[in-house]
């Protein structure tokens, strides 16, 4: 089946619409970051840089480190942007842009998010590193896809019952990380956790400035949830979309979180840039030397 111009949208130079990339521009190992400025923080460790492109919030650098080709791309904030980035990354490697048809041989990408996050449990230290073993999405993105096969419905049901989740809200979904890629990135420096992906930074994460919350007890409900040893550890805004779309598209994905805030203790890192830099260095070393 040939994809129509309204479904597979290409720019005049035949690059994919939002990312402004050509198929040869990306490596099969990709690091995603939210902040466009963090792209150069990652690529500064590369031995060589062959490509720099940017459009809107989507900036991409591709280069090599220790002989391994790697791309780093900024997604911006939120699973709405993840929907764009992951569908277009997959299109770059698995759709023939000339014929507008699916390639007969599928390419599998390794995708690692390096991001910041806030812990909700008092025993998780500021500036520590956490790998999301599970992601729970409050965002609703996966409900627009045929996605039941990649979800963990028993965890979702237990959470809905525990929190008395309002039927007016999008039903939370749960997706597990790629265990093989996670094993490559794991060490005794890394804590495994369950990450909740929110659709906002303030109210959805129970932050109060001037607006009242719809559920004043939500953060306590998150912290007290447990199902067969599964406990929620931290909050951020992209991981559920990353895990869900990666699994649906047949790619391997892991989210690496730098814990900059501890909501239970009311703490925030005094040197967030240095902590994120350490996680970047750690992740690149694991991807290129092990």
Automatic annotation (TrEMBL):
Example GO biological process: purine nucleoside catabolic process
Domain Nucleoside phosphorylase: 30-268
Reaction equation(s) it catalyzes: uridine + phosphate = alpha-D-ribose 1-phosphate + uracil
UniProt-listed Enzyme Commission number(s): 2.4.2.3
GO molecular function: purine-nucleoside phosphorylase activity; uridine phosphorylase activity
Residue stretches spanning the membrane: none
One Pfam family this sequence matches: PNP_UDP_1
Signal peptide bounds: none
InterPro entries: Nucleoside_phosphorylase_d, Nucleoside_phosphorylase_sf
Protein name: Uridine phosphorylase
Taxonomic classification: Bacteria, Pseudomonadati, Bacteroidota, Flavobacteriia, Flavobacteriales
């Amino acid at each position: 089946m040939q994809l129509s111009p309204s479904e597979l949208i290409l720019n005049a130079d035949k690059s994919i619409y939002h990312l402004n990339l050509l198929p040869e521009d990306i490596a099969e190992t990709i690091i995603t970051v939210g902040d466009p400025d963090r792209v150069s923080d990652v690529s500064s460790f590369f031995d060589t840089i062959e490509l720099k492109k940017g459009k809107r919030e989507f900036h991409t650098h591709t280069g090599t480190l220790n002989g391994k080709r790697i791309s780093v791309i900024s997604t911006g904030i939120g699973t709405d942007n993840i929907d764009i980035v992951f569908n277009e990354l997959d299109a770059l490697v698995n759709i023939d842009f000339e014929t507008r048809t699916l390639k007969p041989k599928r390419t599998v990408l390794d995708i690692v998010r390096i991001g910041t996050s806030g812990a909700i449990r008092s025993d998780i230290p500021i500036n520590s590193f956490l790998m999301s073993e599970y992601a729970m999405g409050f965002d609703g993105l996966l409900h627009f896809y045929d996605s039941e096969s990649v979800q963990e419905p028993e965890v979702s049901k237990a959470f809905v019952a525990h929190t008395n989740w309002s039927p007016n809200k999008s039903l939370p979904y749960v997706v597990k990380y790629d265990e093989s890629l996670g094993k490559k990135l794991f060490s005794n420096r890394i804590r495994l956790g369950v990450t909740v992906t929110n659709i906002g930074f303030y109210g959805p994460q129970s932050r109060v400035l001037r607006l009242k919350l719809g559920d004043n007890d939500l953060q306590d409900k998150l912290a007290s949830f447990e199902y067969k040893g599964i406990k929620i550890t931290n909050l951020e805004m992209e991981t559920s979309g990353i895990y869900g779309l990666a699994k649906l598209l047949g790619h391997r994905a892991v989210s690496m979180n730098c814990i900059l805030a501890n909501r239970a203790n009311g703490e925030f890192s005094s040197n967030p840039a240095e902590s994120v830099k350490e996680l970047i260095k750690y992740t690149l070393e694991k991807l290129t030397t092990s």
